[in-house]
Amino acid sequence: MSTAALPAACTIAGSDSGGGAGIQADLKTFAALGIWGTSVVTAITAQNTREVFGVSMVPEAMVTLQIRAVLEDFPVRAIKTGMLGSAGMIRAVARALPPEIPLVLDPVMVATSGSRLLDEDATGILLCTLLPRATVVTPNIPEALVLSGMKQISTIPEMKEAGRTILDLGPDYVVVTGGHLPGNDAVDILVGPDTEMMLKSPKYAFAVHGSGCCFSAAMAGYLAHDCSIELAFSKAKGFVDGAIQGAVMSRSGHYSVRPG
Description:
Strand order of the largest sheet: 3-2-1-4-5-6-7-8-9
Number of strands: 12
Number of helices: 8
Structural class: alpha/beta
Largest sheet: 9 strands, mixed
CATH superfamily of the domain at 8-137 and 209-243: Ribokinase
């Protein structure tokens, strides 16, 4: 019997009943990386790879209690936030997070299916509270458009500009993920105060549910293993590429990432 404690990480996100994104994808990713995964559920969703049928938010007091319970008993080395849903939830999470633990902020706003997962009035609260607290924020291009206020992001220079603009809002680092960028490559760009790093991988001909969740969870997992931001970025890029290559197809013909 092993008595060694695994490094722990915590995901604060919504539950995906289809298993391809959210809490479920995060915990699968942590497990694949040798991380003890803990979780704080912010919302229960009825969804699959095609659509979101319904969302039920967990009371903010219960979310705060989950965070307290996890942090009191596990040596959490990194925290990842995903779907928070509302301004009140963002405030509750921001108040409960200890400042010394690295935070990977995945600014989940819209599901792959197109359903909105963050209230429109909550974006400003995200910018004022959690974004300045983040070690790294990982927007895709539609999310980077909202956070940066830019009118378009369709080129690599524009991705870099968006990253720099978001960096000015307070996070330590920004990763703009470029799966939505035209072209044959999925280009991701890391920017920091003295850092600019670009990684490419082949773009697949099919959309994959949960890739953003998997990437940000992998970043948190590698940070929990004491990797530098640059190394965590590089390793997470490779990890999510493998999870996309091994994607699982649902009955409807849509794909979900398969971490590990």
